[in-house]
Amino acid sequence: MDYFLELFVGGLTRGSIYALIALGYTMVYGIIELINFAHGEIYMIGAFTALIVATVLAMSGFDGISVLVLATLVAVLYSACHGFTVEKIAYKPLRGASRLSPLISAIGMSIFLQNYVMLAQTSDFLPFPNLLPEVPFLEPYAHIMGSTEFIIVATTAGIMVLLTLLIQFTKIGKAMRATAQDRNMAMLVGVNVNRVISTTFIIGSALAALGGVLIASHIGRINFYIGFIAGIKAFTAAVLGGIGSIPGAVLGSLILGWTESFATGYVSSDYEDVFAFALLVLILILRPSGLLGRSTTQKV
Amino acid sequence: MKRLAELRESLVIALWFMFLTFPILVIQVNTIEKTILWRWQNMLYVGLGSFALSFVWRYFLGKVGTGGRLRTEGEEDPKTRFLRLSGDPRVRRGAIAAAVLVALAFPLLSSTYQVNIMTTALMYVVLGLGLNIVVGQAGLLHLGYVAFYAVGAYTYALLYQHFGIGFWTALPLGALMATLFGILLGFPILRLRGDYLAIVTLGFGEITRLVLENWSEFSSGPSGISGIPRPGFFGLELNIQEATIYLYFLMIGFTLFTVFVTNRLQDSRIGRAWLALREDEVACQAMGVDKTMAKMTAFALGSTWAGMMGVVFAAKTTFVNPASFTFLESAMILSIVVLGGMGSTLGIILASFLLILLPEYLRAFSDYRMLLFGTIMVVMMIFRPQGIITNIRRTYEYHFEGKGNGAADKQA
Amino acid sequence: METILETKNLTMNFGGIKALDRVDMDVRRGEICALIGPNGAGKTTFFNCITGIYPPSEGDVFIAPTEGKRRRINGLPVHKVTARGLARTFQNIRLFPDMTVLENVMVGRHCRTKAGVLGAIFRDRPTREEEKAVVTRSLAILERIGLADMVNTLARNLPYGDQRRLEIARALATDPFLLLLDEPAAGMNPRETDALEELILKIKDEENISILMIEHDMRMVMSISNRIVVLDYGKKIAEGTPAEIWENPVVIKAYLGEEFETGD
Fold it and tell me: What is the ipTM of this complex?
């Protein structure tokens, strides 16, 4: 039973991280119908920025919560800025284009960012310190759920609530929903579509960075390539839940997280990544609109 | 006044990039050795560089406007006129004759190493032409082309390992296996909409690689299979130099064959169906074109070529392992197709040479090769999405006096 | 006159909206039948249901291309319906813009030809003959339509009226027994409409093709149709000869919303 719970918590943790990244994918796709291949790299940049800040602070004698807070804030800020910049450079000029152009541009951006970080820093795996505090009341359950896992899940849940409030009840949230449904109409009623799109990228990137910091603390090491694999999986989760749907992204992420956790725990750990891709292919074949997505009929 | 505004904007841009790249470019951390390296000079470079670049960017962006249109809209772009080969058939024949002479003489004038690289470039030309059937002609977004490449390569490797089968026997078998895979994969996925199709093919590409990596009993896992024989020359033993040159000429043959076949396909009933499919899927169905068959045919044909090249790849490197078949490969082949101009044979040749030969000859910058590659992809899409050579499709021209079939040549 | 197309109980639901509500109608051989009704009545949806773009929610569609052979076609994929002999044009022109006039029509011959990949690569004699026949036939159609001198023009560069005629030519290339025209006169001036009328009559008389057309231009409808079927809110509300329909109070109410003395 304990093993089962351990796997359950593990899946929940994974799912939470995927959710933080998947939200960025799903929001961007919902608004400009682009698969932002570079999103995984934003997550990676968040992790790296946090590491840099944490290391500098540690060397200067800081420690404890202040390092966590500062590193996270700076990482989130920088990832948001990177996301914003990538959109302005590589996607905005291609807004009227066919499907293929922005896709290629996104792939190019992903490759560029990976190599940028690799060349500027290192291609090695770098150890990442655990910045997250210990949660004392979890001690008796430590073998099932550790502090880092708890913090990850709790943070993600909190973020979900905040995001939902934002989307449903604020002016910018309404503008985002309108732009996602019909961009031209939103423009006509006075929504600043450029600003909405930038905001979407900023929010998505910030969430990804948060995910980066959390998971890096949990796993303990990072390198320039982690964005690619995490990105693909998060994207799988977004598609699984119904791309363009925010609750869908969360649902898909949890399902993916649990599938991976239980499959590697009970079946085999070699094929871990295969499960994600196989799930992706299956979902797209059986139900391309995902679990919570809407299938759109085309007017002839 | 405008100049002042531009100057101010560029200054802001420069400052922004200095801020943006500060942590990653200036501060290099090494948590293994617990060191920090501060490289303040990078900030200066970034500032100056982005300031200058913003002017260049702004200038060219003004010329292009928004777009990203991959195909010219019938109107001939005046800039491409100089890139357009003269319509004069004599000039074209002369150019082709010269190219053939150079191709034949090449091995005599260069080292084995260079011949090898040229062979690689030619392989990518064929791969590009094969993928072009799927992406350029039928208009399907395919991000998993490398899977069929891998199928071809591993078919040869495994057939050799278990049955001692040689190159020439494995060639059609590898192509056949890849085609079968293409048909099998195509069945469930070809009804998917553009983006979804792209993702599913990406997923399949990765699954193939991962299975090859992990199913060690079948594929020998990450260490791969080695000792695969090169193509035989009437049973004679060839040393490395001779074998390389032999393979080079084989590739020339393959390339010519592929160009011939793809041209023929384009000017045929099925080529028309693909074009109609790309132009308007609903209308083409209403005109009696079975869109599923058309898509499947394109997909399967594309897979055939990838399979063929896979066998050649295995023979060339005498060694296969899963690491050669990553998503990056698919991305590169796709880039060759798009950068080359979506269907322009000459464009695909040029793009392949550029992408393969240039990094080899600029070995000094090899670390920056992928960085450059990513940059080129982004820049090309923004400033010249129609590719290096615009594929101005030679339409079927009917001439009322006597015979007229202008559909033979597809060059721009 | 025998029936060549028949719908029974044809119903189409989109979510909560009944676009077609138990429509029973037929088209007879050799006639020009007009389908009219206010905007949103479901006319184009009707075409889409018959041709297989939407499978109907309920009901059946039957065709009888030759005497005695009646088959059900609902549920068939679009290209198969075309192969069975139903060709159509679209309300918003859907030509292949970057293909020439000739090439557009040549695509129409696709379902009547069979050269495949091997034929394409080897260009054996049967394939070459087939290609030649495709060109010849396409040219012949274009000549009858009157577009022969625009043969190498890109479809996107044609004037509007010619584009509409090209759509008809393309549909004719599929060798249909029944031609479905969706608002063929839309956007045309009176002179062009007259030419269109002539063309439609010519198609009916000389090619032995029956016509079912959706049209708003009442003058043309009254002038050339043999029968008229009227739809409103997805239901068939009237059917009859032009004279009968002109006087029909239900039809007048649907269009004008109130009792109205018809003048002449």
Answer: 0.90
